[in-house]
Amino acid sequence: MRKVPCIITALLLLFAINNLKGQTPKLTLDFNKSNVDVSPKLYGLMTEEINHSYDGGLYAELIRNRIFKDNPNSPDGWSLVLDRGGKGSIDLIGADPLNVPWEQSRNSINDALTTCLKLTVSGGDGRTGLANEGFWGIPVKPNTIYKASFYVKTDTIGAPLVVSIESNDGTITYASSQVVLSKKGWTKYAVQLTTNGDVKPTSSAHFVISTSTVGSYWFNLVSLFPPTYHNRPNGNRTDLMQLMADMKPTFLRFPGGNFLEGDYFGSRFPWKTTLGPLEQRPGHPGCWGYRASDGLGLLEFLEWCEDLKIEPLLAVYAGYSLRGDHVEPGPLLEPYVADALDEIEYVTGPITSKWGAKRAQDGHPAPFKLTDIEIGNEDWFDKSLSYDGRFNQFRTAINQKYPQLRCISTIADFDRGKVVSSKPEMVDEHYYRTAWEMEEDAGHYDRYNRLTSPKVFVGEWATREGAPTTNMNAALGDAAWMTGMERNADIVQRSCYAPLFVNINPKTDHSPRAWQWDSDLIGYNAINSFGSPSYYAQKMFNNYLGNKIVSVIGEYIPTQMRNPNKKEIAAGTLPKAIPALFYVATRDTKRNKIFLKVVNTSGTLQPVTIILNGPIRVTGNGTLVVLKGNGPDDTNSIDNPKNIVPVTTNISGIKKEFIRSFAPYSVNVIELNTY
Ligand code: AHR
Question: How does pLDDT run across 567-602, given as a tens digit for each residue?
């Protein structure tokens, strides 16, 4: 039984289950009706800077606060190193002092890098330096080459600086190198740090730059990269890229979510200042309680797509920010529309165009393919009701220049009670719910008005149970929900779960917890990562997907009682019966496969009679993939990352009618071979 607090409900449930005893549930796959296409872009990914998704997450940079702008009052992430009698101090320098006597360069490198950290070494026999704690540690692995770089300005030419990765207890230097300062003014230095083969992986380490030479040293843009996915400079963590690649997604929705909008106009995603060399990226405030470095900027999002061989789904800022700032449609909105057109040109334009040329200059002459573009995010929150006008102004301008682009509205007109004057081709809908709610509404799109309503992009959805990553119960709710999207994959053309990533570091005495949003798909710390049960449920749904929807008729489907939640109790809602089994089937006519997905949300083993009806022939053997938990709360974690993973076995005895039993709390895929 799943969490059912009251006895009456338990009795009702027993009654419901007993009531169906003796009647084996039956699923009839009707191949007379399997001609509706599955959208080839049904399953994708959604991303934004939340939960340290990039800084302290996917973006492989290991130095926290590398340009010292995270906190105007203190050099967060940095500390002074004084060893063996070293003497000195570190100071955050936020402004350019006048009359620097010994050289002309300023404390600001340029308009983007305006803050630096000054190290003063005043004597002593030992070393003095600065240390960076990384994002909850610096990950140290054996036989690994790390690329370190930084800018220094100094009054002490010839001073040697030692660059190292060291254990937090100070006993081990994992890798180290040295540079000798050759100039006074701002100069970039780069070294490689290589660990030995006998190093035990750890994140209990930090990065140090130190010297014993008396003098003053100003630092900026201090960077340390481990090897990255596809060895991209300024690239991504390999383990997280691999987890995504394994899901076989088809697109990436970016840059948000709320991160697109920002809290205010001034903190929206500033795509133009996320381009080019890191020296030109000032970062921006973000909207999830920490600053974004923008090291993972617009081009890096696009290259992320390129690396996964998927399509970008770009969302453009549409004149509304989270705290209610909005721009009225009309002349005031024009600059924002122009900015979106520039952005689209950066993504898709030829190198003869202004922004296509900028992309080429940034290292990517080839344009990216773009089909759909989203106008804003969750504009149903805009109390001014300006979205109708804003959407239309953006769409008109975009379609004038790019008639092939489909503009996605963030408001479903029929759903949210707002009218969009000219119907959008596609609407973005978001669902964050409990497992019960997902299961109860799994038939949501069965009831959708196919004739008059726009196509659907379920641009954010998740069963929110378990934290920081979701548990088995959430995976069951997710899988039930996915059966509904997949069964209607002619109208639900795209979908992506959110949030994708979470850094799972908990609150400590000196730092808040790393995540802002409970119930996320993929968890990690500095050195390890894991997929939640929801991750594996999605991976199964994505990996076993045909190109045609097969109609399935279910009979004698067992039910469970769903208790109302607190809000519903207050509203007088009564317990109700909802299905305990969910199912969907697709057919791959090119690879001669049938994929039947069955979700058993109950705590009982569930035998099911499966009937293949119509013009189809199957071989006697197939494959069964099962994801199951010991109970609804069962889960994966950083210490037990593979507790719940799909297990694949060969099955036999397949014929036009056969019986399979589905484990309690399980998500199942049966793959059949046709001929
Ligand atoms: O996924 C987390 C947030 O939920 C997104 O940023 C926002 O679009 C939604 O409200």
Answer: 888 999 889 999 999 999 999 999 999 999 999 999
Centre of ligand 1 from the C-alpha of residue 430, in Å: 9
pLDDT at 242 over 70: yes
Which run of H or E residues covers position 415? helix 413-416
Write b or e for each residue in 319-330: b if 16 or more Cβ atoms lie within 10 A of its Cβ, otherwise e.
Answer: bbbbeebbbebe
Which residue, judged by its Cα, is nearest atom 7 of ligand 1?
Answer: 257
CA atoms within 13 A on the CB side of 350: 1
CA distances to 186, 227, 235, 293, 528 from 147, rounded to whole Å, are 19, 8, 12, 18, 20
Distance CA 215, CA 580 (A): 72
Site to probe by mutation for ligand 1, drawn from 45, 46, 47, 48 as the one with most ligand atoms within 8 Å of Cβ, is: 48
Where are the domains positioned within the chain? 3-37+550-674, 43-57+231-530, 78-225
User: Whose C-alpha lies nearest to ligand 1, atom 4?
Assistant: 257
Which atom of ligand 1 is the closest one to the Cα of 460?
1
Q: What are 486-515's pLDDT values in tens digits?
A: 999 999 999 999 999 999 999 988 889 999
CA distance 43 to 492: 10
| Shortest-distance atom of ligand 1 to CA 48 | 6
As assigned by CATH, the class of the 43-57+231-530 domain is alpha beta
Q: Quick one: CATH architecture of 78-225?
A: Sandwich (2.60)
CATH class (in words) of the domain with range 3-37+550-674? mainly beta
